[in-house]
Amino acid sequence: MRYQISGKQIDVGDALQTHVKSELGETVEKYSQRPTDATVVFSRNAHQFLCEATVHLSTGLTAAATGHATEIYAAFESCREKMDKQLRRYKRRLKDHHRDRSEPVEFDAAGMYVLAAGDADQETEPESLSPIIVAEMETKVPTLSVGEAVMQMELAGAPLLVFRNEKHGGVNVVHRRDDGNVGWIDPRNIK
Known about the structure:
Blueprint: E1 2-7, H1 14-31, E2 35-45, E3 48-57, E4 62-69, H2 72-89, H3 91-100, E5 107-115, E6 133-144, H4 146-156, E7 160-165, E8 171-176, E9 182-185
Parallel strand pairs: 1-2, 6-7
Antiparallel strand pairs: 2-3, 3-4, 5-6, 7-8, 8-9
Helix pairs in contact: 1-2
Function: Required for dimerization of active 70S ribosomes into 100S ribosomes in stationary phase; 100S ribosomes are translationally inactive and sometimes present during exponential growth.
GO molecular function: ribosomal small subunit binding
Family: Belongs to the HPF/YfiA ribosome-associated protein family. Long HPF subfamily.
């Protein structure tokens, strides 16, 4: 597994990098025998350290976790425990996923745009209803079943996931609702 361990305005020493590689590698290997790479970023927020970890699996799924504590090693351990809990919850589904799917998840390229936020304090209407594009990027849209999409959304800790439904090839969205349930938007199911 490839590791990218870095710090935002923090020097990440060799001892911490070795600790992260051994502990995170052990955690991920318990539940997934084919991880490809991991990105771990340490930062500081006032008096606390923040650790953000993202692990990409060979199937195309991604697991993400965040931890924080007053010490940097404790922040990593908090993050590792959250990652362990997520992967443990989905262990059976991850294992079944490997058996059912002989090929890795396919990804299609898609455009992604960042729009400028409107001024909430402004009482007058904007001059134009066309928002200002701040950035243009490329993102990847996975081809998944609905169950896999829900699992991927929860593993990544994302509020929503856009995916291509493997049954009919249409673009779908799963999202976490305010009531705690998961919503599924499938434009093709309208009758």
